Amino acid sequence: SGLSATGVTKFCQSYEHNGVLYVDTPGLSDTQLRRQAALEIERALKKNRWYKIFFVVTIEGGRIKPDDLHTINRVMEAINNPDKKFNVIFNKIIKREQQEIFETETAYNAFCDQLARNGHQAVSICSIELDRDLDDNKSEFIAIKDRVKRFIFQDSKGFYLNSDQVSAIDPQTAEELRQHMQAEEYRL
Q1: Would you state the pLDDT for residue 87?
Q2: End-to-end alpha-carbon separation of the chain, Å?
Q3: Beta-bridge mates of residue 89
Q4: Do residues 90 and 58 make contact, with C-beta atoms less than 8 angstroms apart?
Q5: Which of 12, 14, 61, 70 could form a disulfide with 40 if both were Cys (CB 3.0 to 4.6 A apart)?
């Protein structure tokens, strides 16, 4: 990803290599593009194929960013398949976070609990350390570490998804949902 006030991916982008289709979709946090993003993600999930779903998330203040959790929940709620699974890549992890979170069982379990709070459970988790040297590069392609390759191609889990098992993705932001729920409580 590059520097951006919102996510870098604006539209669904697909790449096929060696018979594998890679799809990069925008997230739901951009208030200007979230309805389009929801449609792009829904379309990407309706291809009647084997999927490995990866959510790339970041940590802010020692917690998973609320927008990332919201996106995970919205997407997973739209999948009506009992075998649904997802994988998480924690991106731009600093060394201290790596040690405190991913090398301590209690902290790691707390992060897994954050991901599973709405009943959706990550089956595989990987972290990618922050590399400040990349900040100065404009290259779109970088070599990924063997550990990350192994995670993506071997350790991560997937499932077969039919297009009729995908519902419309609710593009509301977490804030809009909170306001809506408060309004409903007030009316009751």
Answers
A1: 93
A2: 44
A3: 56, 126
A4: yes
A5: 12
Tens-digit pLDDT profile for residues 139-155:
566 778 899 999 999 99
Closest CA to 29 of 66, 83, 63, 77: 66
- pLDDT confidence of residue 102: 78
Residue type, 143: A
Q: Are 59 and 93 in contact (CB under 8 A)?
A: yes
Name the pTM for this structure: 0.80
What are the CA-CA distances from residue 53 to residues 11, 44, 151 (Å)? 17, 11, 12
SS (H, E, C) the chain: CCCCCCCCCCCCEEEEECCEEEEECCCCCCCCCHHHHHHHHHHHHCCCEEECCEEEECEECCEECHHHHHHHHHHHHCECCCCCCEEEEEEEECHHHHHHHHCCHHHHHHHHHHHHCCCCCEEEEEEEECCHHHHHCCCCCCCCCHHHHHHHHHHCCCEEECHHHECCCCCCCHHHHHHHHHHHHHHC
Both structure tokens of 154: 């071997």
